[in-house]
Amino acid sequence: MADQASGEAKKSGGGAPTWLVIVTAVLSACSALAVAYIGLASKNIEVDAKRDEIAAEQARFDADERRQTDESLKAIVPMILSSTDAERQVGLALLRILHRGREAEVLTAIQSLPVERSSQNAEAAITLDRAVRLLRAEPTERWVILVGADKALDAAKTEVEKAKANGLSAQVYQKEGWFRTAIGPFPTRPDADRAAIAVRASIAADAYVNRLNSWCAQPQARDGYTECR
Predict the structure, then answer these.
(1) 10 Å Cβ neighbour count for 47?
(2) Residue-wise over 103-133: b if at least 16 C-beta within 10 A, else e?
(3) How many CA atoms lie within 13 A of 45 on its CB side?
């Protein structure tokens, strides 16, 4: 036995036996794989936890939005259907302020309400019809989430790719010498606000919502970006 062990030691250059070297290497590899697996599992747990946190915050946002919408419409709709023109105009003004981007949708729903036929209701119906036509003739409302400002176009494009990796549509605008990365557009402010919850959690903590129609009133397409003139 001593001669056999001596022979194995000689084969390994006078060091540890060959079998010990192999076993140690295998164990080291298994240990490395275990560490990698634990790291990946931990990362997946963190991603799932973050996703759940975002979903919970968006659910709270949706509930608050529905509650605020219901409360405001309970006050606004009777004003829009009022017998006096002055009160109807106030109701329409409040609708424009509190439900920007959804005015036509709300007014169309009001038009479908069953109401008693009278001269006063006929006047309200005329006001509603005129308001709907005017709203539909206006430019489509669009909102974006601004997530960065860079002096170099390539840096802004990197942020666009990061947004796309998170399943969001984004593009670059140039305004006042800066390349601004914007996610969207969204049809209403609440839609943009809801998406901004995920954007702040995964892309840029200081992201904010802006009305594209006024922020970039005269867009001009360029190579790889849109210039705001």
Answers:
(1) 11
(2) bbebbeebeeeeeeeeeeeeebeebbeebbe
(3) 6
**Long-range pairs for 58-62: beta carbons < 8 A, 24 or more residues apart:** 58/194, 58/197, 58/198, 61/193, 61/194, 61/197, 62/194
Domain ranges of the chain: 61-137, 143-228
Closest to 229 in 3D by CA, of 177, 183, 192, 152 = 177
| DSSP annotation string for 83-132 | SSHHHHHHHHHHHHHHSTT-HHHHHHHHHTS-----HHHHHHHHHHHHHH
- Nearest to 107, CA basis, from 64, 75, 73: 73
The whole-angstrom separation of Cα 196 and Cα 146 is 9
The whole-angstrom distance between residue 178's C-alpha and the CA centroid of its chain comes to: 22
Per-10-residue mean pLDDT for the chain, 229 residues long? 48 58 64 60 67 88 88 86 84 83 80 60 70 64 91 91 90 95 91 93 92 92 93
Q: Could you tell me the sign of the dihedral formed by the alpha carbons of 151, 152, 155, 160, in that order?
A: positive
Token pair of 22 as six digits = 């192999």
Q: Which stretches within 149-188 are classed as H helix? A: 153-165
CATH numeric code, 143-228 = 3.30.70.1070
Strand partners, 150: 179
| CA-based radius of gyration for the chain | 31
